[in-house]
Design a protein that fits this description.
mainly beta, Immunoglobulin-like, 2 domains, four-stranded antiparallel β-sheet, three-stranded antiparallel β-sheet, 7 strands, elongated
Length: about 160
């Protein structure tokens, strides 16, 4: 695969360094670990999302969900099996994993739930009011004339 040269974009943009760093990190992404565990990302509403990961065989105490610096990290560490088992066929992968998701600005993790072998992580985008689109009133360019306050004399 040919590396991507982003230097022309660095010269003509301001404030997109994080995006370019993300592109650089994806270019070197390890494809062998890309498939486990499988996951879905669904959009539930305009500002609501859900990540669903298939984590069959993992208990609630074997999965950790962390958020740090706009990165959601989901890690599974399987505890040692107390019983010595002899498998004829082992199709359920029970290997340790770590999967990371880059979160956009103002996306927050609201909670996580493990049910029927599926880990559901709820996300919501909370854009502050000052960053939402708004209409600006257009003035006439003239300063308002000062008004004199009339004082009433006490009788």
């Amino acid at each position: 695969m040919r590396p991507i040269d982003l230097s022309p974009l660095y010269r003509s943009t301001v404030g997109f360094e994080r995006l370019f760093d993300l592109i650089d990190s994806v270019a070197g992404f390890d494809q062998a670990a890309a498939g486990y565990p499988p996951y879905n990302i669904e959009q539930l509403g305009e500002d609501k999302y859900r990540i669903t990961m298939a984590v069959a065989g993992f208990g609630q105490d074997e999965i950790r969900v962390d958020v740090k610096d706009q990165t959601l990290s989901v890690a599974g560490a399987k505890k040692a099996d107390e019983k010595q088992r002899r498998y004829v066929h082992r199709g359920i992968a029970a290997r340790n994993f770590e999967r990371r998701f880059q979160l956009a600005d103002h996306v927050e993790v609201k909670g996580a739930d493990l049910q029927d072998g599926l880990l559901h992580i709820e996300l919501v985008r909370n854009v502050p009011e000052r960053l939402k689109p708004r209409t600006i009133a257009i003035g006439t360019g003239k300063a308002p004339e000062p008004r004199q306050v009339e004082a009433s004399a006490a009788v």
